[in-house]
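Protocol step 4 of 6: structure prediction from sequence.
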Amino acid sequence: MKFTSAAVLTIVTVGCASQAVVAFAPTAPTFNNKHSSTTSTTSLNSIILTKTTGRSSLDPTVIDRYNDLPYPEDVILAEYVWVDADGKTRSKTRTLPAAKAESIKTLPKWNFDGSSTGQAPGDDSEVILKPCRIFKDPFRPRKDGIYNILVMCETYTPAGEPLESNTRAIAAKAFEGNEDEEVWFGMEQEYTLFNMDEKTPLGWPQNGFPNRPQGPYYCSVGPENSFGRSISDALYKAALYAGITISGTNGEVMPGQQEYQVGPCVGIDAGDQLMMSRYILQRVCEDFQVYCTLHPKPIVDGDWNGAGMHTNVSTKKMREKSHGLDVIKQAIYKLGANHKDHIAIYGEGNELRLTGKFETASMESFSYGVANRGASVRIGRDTWENGYGYFEDRRPSSNCDPYLVTGKIMSTIMGPEAPEIAPLDKEEA
């Protein structure tokens, strides 16, 4: 990153209900399903979605029959989105008067059953959804000049206390009082696409490995190199429509791996936009019937890159020509002095990725360098030569919490001075 249809899922029973469930829910849920049924339902085209096709077998002409129905002029559909106990997004829909969608202040709070998401006990299960950011809904477009909306929400107890999983509230405290810094974040979200067996990345043979090593897949073209472009392009357009500041996409080093960039975004809005972009990514993959993982090292055997969320940072003072580079260096020294604290919240499974190989620095030590992708923090060549700009923290994993990451970076670089650190020579990486 540089600062420069709706799917209708129906289940076909083929002998027993469990086989149908496997087709749509290959990973066992963490919590018990309150509503189970063995009743047969009807498929739109009489076949179950296989787990290896990598595409939906639902007939789009049938789906379009319902998408083409007009909406009433005075109502909108609002999809309330929140982060669950595992850091993943969930959502549900409500009908609202169109006037309610004009601002966050006019949107009503809502609630959900927190006992089914691991966010509340069964005997006191109500969790309150508090709207905090509005986006246009790319999955329910309208032709009447009114927009259905996606609503990013925070989670609270009925008493008004933020849930433990409400990391947005933690980040908000870090940004509070620092508005004059006008901190920009640009986040590079990597992700890996699999067939629905959840074992075979797109472009890989089943139960095997590609016949070529890494090299030809990064920013590649051609059917033998690029896998998942249609999903990446769909995400790009959907995110732009929604109002997310998506600034680019590219194929990544490992086949089946993709990246998109969000930013620059200011302050807490970076977390809101990145989290909503992950929701849109999963919805797109739902339509394509492709499994998407944010695991930082989805393939541990062989010489394959992991996946990260490199985070680019620039405050107003870092962008000043007179002394921006000095401010950047001071911020990096502070990050080095707090390295272990950052690693602790930079993502689960990150130890599999930050090994000192495959364009990473070891998580055991901190380093920085100019144009050095083997360092913990990288200063771009242009920034170094111009004397102002931004730096890139390369440590966050692809599954990190963007609220925690941006909030932690903000609190650290606004903290006390730290000892100087010598830059890492590129030959040492």
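Step 5 (inspection) to follow. The mean pLDDT is 88.
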